[in-house]
Design a protein that fits this description.
The chain is built from nine helices and 18 strands. It has helices spanning about 170-175, 225-230, 255-265, 290-300, 320-330, 350, 370-375, 385-395, 400-405, and strands spanning about 5-10, 45-50, 65, 85-90, 95, 105, 115, 145-155, 160-165, 195-200, 205-210, 240-245, 275-280, 305-310, 355-360, 365, 410-415, 420.
Length: about 425
C-alpha cells in the first residue's frame, strides 16, 4: 500500500505546575517559601528520514503527544522537563494546516522542525515572596503545550520523472538504469505507487529518477490513478515522456503525448515549461515501419524537445537516453522548495491579553486563554492569593471591560469555573 497524504493530530506537553512549599527545618526559623518551578513540557518535532519514501508509519497511528513537564518540588527544586518527541517523515513531505490547506513547512532540505512547542513550567511560590508578602500560599500553574491538527502530504524528491500511459515501459526503463526493482508485468496499472531509483554514473555524479504511475487522459480530474500521483511530478526537474512507438496497445504516440501534457498543464501550469525528453520505447516491436519514427522526431521538434528511440527489453538506446539526460542536466531548473504560507505573528502577547465578555442568565462570563493559567494558579482559600488575582484583573483591563459591559456592584462574574461578586 502507498500512502502519500494523511491527517494527524499532535499535542505538545504541558508545563509542570509551580510548587507551594515552605522551608521547615529544626533550628531554622522563618525558613520562608521554597517551592520550585515546574518543568517544561515536551515539544513535537519533525525530522527527515532519507530511507523512507511513503507515509506508511502513519497508517495505524495518527495521534502524537509529548509528555508533560513535572511539577516543582520543595527545596526550590525544579520539576524535570519532558523529553521532546520526534516524528520521522520522508524527504519532500509538506506539513499543512487542516483548516486552510496552507503550507507550514516543506521537509525537503532543512533541519528538524518544531511543529508544536511544549508549555513553560509555572513558577513556585518562592518567586512571589516580597517584603510585604513573606508567605505566599500560591504558585503559578504550567502553560499548556501547543495542539494542532495537521495534514502531511508527500511530494517526492526526484530530479527526473518518467511519465506516460500505463504499460509503455516506464518501470522497465527505471529498472535498467538504476538499482530499483519495480514490479513489472504486461498489464495495465502494474505500478500502483511511484518507484524511486538512483542513477549513478560515477562517484561524483548521480541523480534520482522516479516512475510516476497511473497517468491517463482525465487524470487531473480523478480518472484512473493519476489524481493520486500528479503531485509527485511537481518536484521533477526533467520529465522523460515514455511512449509506445510500436503501437502495441492500439494508441498513437503523438495522441498520448498531447493527452498527458494536457493533464499536466491542467494540474499545474508551471509544468508547461518543464524540460522534456521523449523516450520512444519498444523499438524492437516496431518492425521495419520507420515512418512513425520520423513523425515522432518532427513532432518532438515542434515541442522544443528531443526524441530518443529505446527498447527496455533489449537495452537498445538506453545509453543514449542517459547521455541526453546528462547533457541537459546542468541547465535544469532548481528543485522546487515550497515556502511557508503561514504569516508569522508576534508571540503570544496579543493572544494572551484577549478578553471576551458575555452575559447569560445574569452572569458575566470572562473568556481568554491566558486567564486559564491565572485561575489555576490562584488559591481562593488564601487572602493574599486572592488579592494577587484581583491585581492581575485590574492591570490586564478585565475589570474595565466588565464595567464597559454593564457589570455593577454585586453582579456575579464567572471566569473558567471561578465565581465571585463584582465589587466596583
Amino acid at each position: 500500500m502507498f500512502l502519500d497524504k494523511v491527517a494527524i493530530h499532535i499535542k505538545a506537553g504541558n508545563g509542570g505546575n509551580g510548587c507551594v512549599s515552605f522551608h521547615r527545618e529544626k533550628y531554622v526559623p522563618r525558613g520562608g517559601p521554597d517551592g520550585g518551578d515546574g518543568g517544561r513540557g515536551g515539544s513535537v518535532i519533525f525530522k527527515i528520514d532519507n530511507g523512507k519514501n511513503a507515509l506508511l508509519d502513519f497508517k495505524h497511528r495518527r495521534r502524537f503527544a509529548a509528555e508533560n513537564g513535572q511539577d516543582g518540588k520543595s527545596g526550590k527544586m525544579s520539576g524535570r522537563g519532558a523529553a521532546d518527541i520526534y516524528i520521522s517523515v520522508p524527504p519532500g513531505t509538506l506539513i499543512k494546516e487542516v483548516e486552510t490547506g496552507k503550507i507550514i513547512k516543506d521537509m525537503s532540505d532543512c533541519g528538524d522542525f518544531v511543529a508544536a512547542k511544549g508549555g513553560k513550567g509555572g513558577w513556585g511560590n518562592s518567586h512571589f515572596a516580597t517584603p510585604s508578602r513573606q508567605a505566599p500560599n500560591f504558585a503559578k500553574s504550567g502553560f499548556p503545550g501547543e495542539e494542532k491538527n495537521l495534514v502531511l502530504e508527500l511530494k517526492m524528491l526526484a530530479e527526473v520523472g518518467l511519465i506516460g500511459y500505463p504499460n509503455v515501459g516506464k518501470s522497465s526503463i527505471l529498472g535498467i538504469v538504476s538499482m530499483a526493482r519495480p514490479k513489472i508485468a504486461d498489464y495495465h496499472f502494474t505500478t500502483l505507487a511511484p518507484n524511486l531509483g538512483v542513477v549513478s554514473l560515477s562517484d561524483e555524479f548521480s541523480f534520482v529518477m522516479a516512475d510516476i504511475p497511473g497517468l491517463i487522459e482525465g487524470a487531473s480530474e480523478g480518472v484512473g490513478l493519476g489524481h493520486d500521483f500528479l503531485r509527485h511530478i511537481e518536484r521533477c526537474r526533467l520529465l522523460v515522456h515514455v511512449v509506445d512507438i510500436s503501437k502495441s496497445e492500439g494508441r498513437d504516440p503523438l495522441d498520448d503525448i498531447d493527452a498527458i501534457n494536457g493533464e499536466l498543464v491542467k494540474f499545474s501550469e508551471e509544468l508547461l515549461d518543464r524540460p522534456q525528453i521523449i523516450a520512444a520505447n519498444k523499438v524492437d516491436l516496431a518492425g521495419d515501419d520507420r515512418q512513425g519514427f520520423k513523425e515522432l522526431e518532427d513532432y518532438a521538434a515542434t515541442l522544443g524537445c528531443e526524441a530518443v528511440f529505446v527498447s527496455a527489453a533489449t537495452g537498445e538506446g538506453i545509453d543514449k537516453l542517459i547521455e541526453k539526460i546528462v547533457k541537459i542536466y546542468p541547465s535544469l531548473p532548481p528543485l522546487k522548495i515550497y515556502e511557508s504560507e503561514i504569516t508569522e505573528t508576534l508571540p503570544e502577547i496579543g493572544r494572551e491579553r484577549e478578553i471576551a465578555i458575555s452575559l447569560e442568565n445574569g452572569i458575566y462570563s470572562v473568556g481568554g486563554e491566558w486567564l486559564i493559567s491565572v485561575v489555576n494558579s490562584t488559591n481562593f482559600d488564601d487572602r493574599e492569593s486572592i488579592m494577587h488575582f484581583q491585581r492581575i484583573l485590574n492591570k490586564s483591563g478585565v475589570i474595565d471591560k466588565l464595567r464597559e459591559a454593564g457589570a455593577g456592584e454585586g453582579d456575579t462574574v464567572e471566569i473558567y469555573g471561578a465565581e465571585f461578586d463584582f465589587v466596583d
